[in-house]
């Protein structure tokens, strides 16, 4: 499978598993898992064809590890980034002292006024390194990295979760914890 085909399948899976399973009438359980056979059949009806081996290649080679299989590879889900209500069953963890949020320069005035909001997503996404945060910010315009004092947030009772693909998640970041 070439890179263009992998990217097409990955983008469609992101749409279906993170945001709009109803697009193909796909059932996700409360934890966001979809049956692989059902997914493949419903994708085929939309003329998006792939074998189990190709799906495995998309999951394994995705540089952001956006998707995960269960142990038997009979179920698949998005690792994080949902705008639909799913319970990823992640345990709350103590984060590092600092994490980073990549955004576009155009978003900075709003963030410095209101904080970092999850908006349509289930969580705010934070990166453990500046390079990843920069890549995230570049998707939306001229990138800016914000440093978040997550250690202080944790000490004050905020909860943090670490997704299967290494993205730190929380509900909201107040302005007082953010620096440029």
UniProtKB/TrEMBL annotation:
Position of the signal peptide: none
InterPro entries for the chain: Ptrans_KptA/Tpt1 (IPR002745), RNA_2'-PTrans_C (IPR042081), RNA_2'-PTrans_KptA (IPR022928), RNA_2'-PTrans_N (IPR042080)
Xref: Gene3D superfamilies: 3.20.170.30, RNA 2'-phosphotransferase, Tpt1/KptA family, N-terminal domain (1.10.10.970)
Taxonomic classification: Bacteria, Pseudomonadati, Bacteroidota, Flavobacteriia, Flavobacteriales
HAMAP family hit by this protein: KptA
Family: Belongs to the KptA/TPT1 family.
GO biological process: tRNA splicing, via endonucleolytic cleavage and ligation
Pfam family, one: PTS_2-RNA
Keywords: NAD, Transferase
UniProt name for this protein: Probable RNA 2'-phosphotransferase
An example Gene Ontology molecular-function term: tRNA 2'-phosphotransferase activity
Superkingdom field: Bacteria
Source organism per UniProt: Chryseobacterium defluvii
EC numbers: 2.7.1.-
Free-text function comment from the UniProt entry: Removes the 2'-phosphate from RNA via an intermediate in which the phosphate is ADP-ribosylated by NAD followed by a presumed transesterification to release the RNA and generate ADP-ribose 1''-2''-cyclic phosphate (APPR>P). May function as an ADP-ribosylase.
């Amino acid at each position: 499978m070439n890179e263009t085909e992998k990217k097409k399948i990955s983008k469609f899976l992101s749409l279906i598993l993170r945001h709009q399973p109803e697009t193909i009438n796909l059932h996700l359980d409360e934890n966001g898992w979809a049956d692989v056979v059902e997914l493949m059949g419903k994708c085929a009806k939309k003329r998006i064809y792939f074998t189990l081996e190709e799906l495995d290649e998309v999951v394994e080679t995705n540089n952001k590890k956006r998707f995960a299989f269960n142990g038997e590879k009979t179920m698949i889900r998005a690792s994080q980034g949902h705008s639909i209500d799913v319970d990823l069953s992640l345990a709350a963890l103590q984060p590092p002292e600092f994490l980073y949020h990549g955004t576009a320069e155009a978003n900075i005035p709003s963030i410095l006024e209101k904080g970092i909001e999850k908006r349509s997503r289930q969580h705010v996404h934070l990166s453990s390194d500046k390079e990843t945060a920069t890549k995230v910010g570049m998707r939306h315009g001229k990138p800016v990295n914000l440093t978040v004092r997550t250690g202080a947030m944790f000490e004050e009772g905020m909860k943090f979760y670490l997704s299967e693909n290494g993205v730190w998640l929380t509900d909201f970041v107040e302005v007082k914890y953010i620096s440029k």
